Amino acid sequence: xxxxxxxxxxxxxxxxxxxxxxxxxxxxxxxxxxxxxxxxxxxxxxxxxxxxxxxxxxxxxxxxxxxxxxxxxxxxxxxxxxxxxxxxxxxxxxxxxxxxxxxxxxxxxxxxxxxxxxxxxxxxxxxxxxxxxxxxxxxxxxxxxxxxxxxxxxxxxxxxxxxxxxxxxxxxxxxxxxxxxxxxxxxxxxxxxxxxxxxxxxxxxxxxxxxxxxxxxxxxxxxxxxxxxxxxxxxxxxxxxxxxxxxxxxxxxxxxxxxxxxxxxxxxxxxxxxxxxxxxxxxxxx
Length: 286
Hints:
Order of helices and strands: EHHEEHHEHEHHEHEHHEEE
Distance between the termini: 54 Å
Strand order of the largest sheet: 6-5-4-7-8-10-9
Helix content: 25-40%
């Protein structure tokens, strides 16, 4: 159960924001007064609490680090620049530049911030969880306001829409974005900070299905990119169009691509009991 509360002695603006969050999340707004957060949760039988503060917002659970929107490993990823596997999957160097990406499973916008802040593209994120979309609304605006920080411009180039990915994509025109990016929750979570345990409580654990993949393929003009665990086999779900005809190897994850733009795209195949293979790169198809 999720409840919403505020800092102690909140100004009117914080109370108004807390009311808006509670309404969007469909959960009760509890007045804080002098009660501690843990006592407030216990009193109301809550497992999660969305806290609206004067400077930032976060979601807490007992015994775990609070969940909030932050730049994460942005500066570390910036070292790799455009050579990072995610960015090579989204915009291979031998293809035309990509200036817009739909991140259909935006989560906490860590990948979106990398795409916007390093590749320079605008990102339209789709998030199915109402509490997470509220966190994103506050967190991205907060980071964009820190104009002296390297991630600020990227944060200002990300917009977020609350809704189910397949339904939101179905409302978009065919070939209305160069790239659609998909990062569904993995069945076996990778190692992460304890705050991501809070995120897993809130995120929708829907596996990749044909409806989502078909809509992503319809909306994407040039490619669909899917994040998968490193060295994992391709999904049993058949990919539309040319199928999974590119694969970019990352350190812990790989990126499968339905590549429409390149005539003979490079396929980097991890060793899954067979020798790795590569198809020679070609020029961009006309």
